[in-house]
Write a structure and sequence with these properties.
The chain folds into 3 domains: 13-209, Up-down Bundle (Growth Hormone, Chain: A); 220-403, no CATH class; 407-496. The longest helix has 32 residues, at 151-182. It is mainly alpha-helical. The protein contains 21 helices and 6 strands. The protein starts with 12 loop residues before the first helix and ends with a strand. It is elongated, with a radius of gyration of 31 Å. Strands 1-6 form a two-stranded antiparallel ribbon. Strands 2-5 form a two-stranded antiparallel sheet.
């Protein structure tokens, strides 16, 4: 018997290619193009235009000051990182600022083409708008690149960004010169303004990074990420008994007993695991955790940081333990499990309906696949969590949850005892498969019996593979018509 499960393997050439075929990696090439396009248009290309119009060297030197905008963008980068735009904000923190920058670039380039060298002051104002918008766009693109994918894709994101950036330099340099030679500088800059539409379309097609909605930029200093695969710790770390709840006066381990969770099976390991789960999968808990990082003095040593973080985690876990008071009844563990599954493991249909009701954009295929992986991981973690209970353990619910995670299907049925006495041509025996352990929401296997002319069973063909099994289901086959009761022939199922 074999079951399909995700497994990490050594990276092969095909996997490397798959990384570069990731939608966000491909999109990064177009964003790189959008970032590189305006750079030369306010530097060397603009200088060539001014020289072509016989503008004085002193005036051209004045335009060189516009380039300082790229050097001082660090001063308004925090605003781009934290402040949401009033109208475009519905697109998300990163996408809205990228779009705003691109609109400013296009408007500035078009304005430069209309004004020309007739009014150098107005021309410099439009050039400054282009440079400022471009620098702002660079800040948003850098944040998007970091937050959009996991570390696995960061190298590819940087590579495709540089590729697009270099292509843009060729277009804004040699391309603009060719256009100016064949047409005019006005036409050249207007076409450059139109080219910005490539970046605008890209921004409208890509989805907002999940991290921008769940954590501040300071999180990067801690090397943290909201990616499930990265945040879920090893089992030994998750269930460690070394954590002591001494930081909060609302916990029994500090001397004040408000609620003895262990009476209902919510032991230390369970509380620890549940606390870790909430910090990984709950956005509000994540925000609280990362906000607490600001309380750590910058002069703290590594050991001091670990001690402070331990105390903060202890306080959080103490609150979690007190919150378990609501689930102190015999059915409490089952109710708690159902609550966690409903909140953190919704179906894709419910999730899509929720996003639509909240005015959020629909998930693209890559985002939907990522969300499905996160939901699957959340189900697995919940099953492992309740497996730590010492009593009142919801065994059936745990089995169903693991079945939903594994979601195995029957691929082959092997008949070990063909039986005898069936009458070919008078109807085949009824083949019955049990329902999957995952519950009614999954598909039960169906099959039909194929008989030999001699009246014995030749094979069992599957009508469907089913979904949600954790073990090979036992098959029941109706008895020959000459026998009054059903019998269970020896048949085993294999599933992939």
């Amino acid at each position: 018997m074999s079951i399909n499960r995700d497994a990490s393997e050594e990276m092969r050439w095909g996997e490397v290619l798959a990384i570069y075929m990731h939608p966000r990696v491909i999109a990064m090439a177009f964003l790189g193009f959008s970032g590189g396009l305006p750079f030369l248009l306010v530097f060397s290309t603009l200088t060539a235009w001014l020289r072509d119009e016989e503008i004085s060297r002193s005036a051209i030197g004045f335009f060189a000051w516009i380039g300082i905008t790229y050097s001082i963008k660090v001063f308004w980068a925090p605003v781009v990182d934290r402040l949401k735009l009033p109208l475009l904000g519905r697109l998300g923190q990163r996408r809205s600022w990228m779009l705003a920058g691109q609109i400013g670039i296009s408007a500035g380039l078009f304005g430069m083409s209309l004004v020309g060298t007739a009014d150098l002051f107005v021309l410099s104002a439009f050039a400054l708008l282009v440079a400022f918008s471009s620098a702002t766009q660079d800040v948003a693109i850098d944040a998007y690149r970091i937050e959009a994918v996991t570390d696995r894709y960061q190298g590819a994101m940087s590579a495709t960004y540089i590729f697009g950036y270099r292509i843009a330099l060729l277009v804004a340099g040699a391309g603009a010169f060719y256009l100016a030679d064949f047409f005019s500088w006005t036409v050249a800059y207007q076409l450059m303004a139109a080219t910005v539409l490539l970046g605008i379309v890209t921004v409208m097609l890509v989805s907002e990074p999940e991290q921008s909605e769940t954590k501040p930029a300071t999180l990067a200093s801690e090397g943290a990420t909201t990616d499930v695969e990265s945040l879920v710790l090893s089992s030994s770390e998750l269930i460690s008994d070394a954590l002591q709840w001494t930081a909060s006066p609302i916990n029994k381990r500090s001397g004040v007993t408000l609620y003895d969770a262990e009476k209902n099976g919510f032991n230390v390991k369970f509380v620890t695991y549940l606390s870790r789960f909430l910090l990984v999968f709950d956005r509000d808990c994540q925000k609280w955790w990362y906000t607490r990082a600001k309380e750590i003095p910058k002069t703290s040593t590594a050991d001091q940081v670990d001690d402070i973080r331990l105390q903060q985690f202890a306080a959080f876990s103490a609150s979690v333990e007190v919150g378990l008071l609501e689930y102190g009844r015999p059915s409490g563990p089952k109710d708690l499990m159902n609550s966690l599954v409903t909140r953190y493991c919704p179906t894709m249909e419910l999730l899509k309906a929720s996003r639509e009701a909240n005015g959020e954009p629909p998930l693209n295929p890559a985002g939907e696949a990522r969300t499905q992986r996160e939901i699957k991981e959340a189900r697995r973690q919940i099953a492992l969590l309740f497996g730590l209970m010492t009593q009142n353990q919801p065994v059936e619910e745990i089995t169903a949850l693991l079945a939903a995670v594994d979601n195995a299907a029957v691929t082959k049925v092997v008949v070990t005892d063909p039986g005898a006495g069936y009458a070919p041509g008078y109807g085949s025996p009824v083949v019955t498969f049990p329902p999957p352990e995952a519950g009614e929401g999954f598909e039960t296997v169906q099959g039909r019996a194929i008989l030999r002319p001699s009246g014995s069973l030749l094979r069992i063909d599957r009508i469907n593979r089913g979904k949600g099994y954790t073990s090979a289901p036992k098959i029941t086959i109706s008895a020959p018509s000459l026998i009054s009761s059903d019998i269970s022939l020896n048949a085993s199922s294999l599933f992939l």
